Amino acid sequence: MNKPTVAVLGTGILGTPIARNLLEAGYPVRVWNRTPAKARALAEHGALAADSPAEAVDGAGVVLTVLIDAAATRAAVDAAADRLAPGTIWAEMGTVGIADVPELAALAAERNLVFVDAPVQGARPLAEQGKLLIYAAGPERAKPVLEPIFDVLGRRTDWLDNRAEGAKATAIKLVVNSWVFALTTASAEAVALARGLDLDPERFRTAIEGGPIDNAWAQMRSAAILADDFSPMFSVRSAVKDASLIASAADSADVRLDLADAVRERFEWAASDGHADQDIIATYFASFR
Ligand SMILES: NC(=O)c1ccc[n+]([C@@H]2O[C@H](COP(=O)([O-])OP(=O)(O)OC[C@H]3O[C@@H](n4cnc5c(N)ncnc54)[C@H](OP(=O)(O)O)[C@@H]3O)[C@@H](O)[C@H]2O)c1
Q1: Residues 6+ away with beta carbon under 8 Å from 80
Q2: Collapsing DSSP states into helix, strand and coil, what is residue 266?
Q3: Which atom of ligand 1 is nearest to the CA of 277?
Q4: 116, 146 contact by CB (below 8 A)
Q5: 3-state secondary structure of 10
Q6: I want to staple 91 with a disulfide (CB 3.0 to 4.6 A). Which of 118, 167, 191, 247 is the partner?
Q7: Closest among 160, 7, 10 to 71, alpha carbons compared
Q8: Which contiguous run of DSSP H or E holds residue 158?
Q9: Is 70 helix (H, G, I), strand (E, B) or coil?
Q10: Whole-model pTM?
Q11: Count of alpha carbons within 13 Å of 3, Cβ hemisphere only?
């Protein structure tokens, strides 16, 4: 099958490696970003850097949205609408809320687009390595086109449903994020407690190493705290947004999540204390407020 032109709307932490990997795999790629410099940086790798969402989607067979939230996604697709050909496949790869998915699906239906809810798991390094985990829900006819693209971007795609509006892909994404956030916060708190107790905080890592309570994420993220490396793989700003989406999802399902509420409060504090653009492990600083 000929490779379709792919438009990537949003070239932030996640969208940039997504666009680069598609370029390396030989896809024609057109990119747009609100802050144009981030899109222009991809031009040297062969992307067409567009000045508007409409210019970016012109002639594209596939549109990938990798924007911060549903409002930014809706605005970009609205702005592109006149140049989106009927039948264009739109995969929404950012993280939005469960209630947002049917609204975005309805917008796609109004425009005769084929909508796929396709959030991803995996921070910047995995995106760069093309090893994201993709959760996808959408019509069967999108699969033959998207599967080769998702194979470039991810190590696996879990197809959940052929009705995107059911939001099953976004639902599992939020479930997994609640787990990631809990692990991240627990790692940060353990390092903070070790420091507070005048222990060498490295002792936390060695104390769990190799045993049944060891965990690769805890090792990696606590190592980042100890190295004073808060460069964003996944920003606190995005985590505040996702923590709120998790809370709304839990409310809608009448499920009580005490840990998620505490995690959210720490992210909110970290964001308001100047850590919004740092990695989520900056939740560590909330232990010393
Ligand atoms: N990074 C990860 O590890 C990861 C993993 C899984 C899922 N996600 C999800 O993927 C999405 C993108 O995340 P990211 O890490 O790439 O975040 P990011 O680096 O902050 O990028 C966010 C993108 O959204 C754009 N944006 C923000 N507000 C906007 C607005 N009002 N109008 C138009 N564009 C706007 C940004 O444009 P500017 O450049 O102009 O700010 C940028 O293109 C988010 O939904 C996030 O939750 C991220």
Answers
A1: 7, 9, 52, 53, 54, 56, 57, 63
A2: helix
A3: 20
A4: yes
A5: coil
A6: 118
A7: 10
A8: strand 154-161
A9: helix
A10: 0.95
A11: 15
Which amino acid, 69? Answer: D
Residue where the block lists tokens 């995996």: 122
pLDDT value for 123 = 85
Alpha carbon distance 86, 18 (integer Å): 24
Residue 115 bridge partners (DSSP): 90
Q: Which two tokens stand for residue 186?
A: 């627990």
CA distance 163 to 21: 28
Supply the DSSP symbol for 129: T
Helix (H, G, I), strand (E, B) or coil at 124: helix
Q: Mark the ranges of the chain whose per-residue pLDDT is less than 50.
A: none
Q: Do residues 242 and 95 make contact, with C-beta atoms less than 8 angstroms apart?
A: yes
Q: Are 144 and 79 contacting, i.e. CB atoms less than 8 angstroms apart?
A: no
Identity of the amino acid at 233:
M
- Ligand 1 pocket (Cβ < 6 Å) reads 10-15, 33-35, 38, 66-68, 72, 94-95, 120, 123-124, 233-235, 238, 242
Place of tokens 């084929």: 114
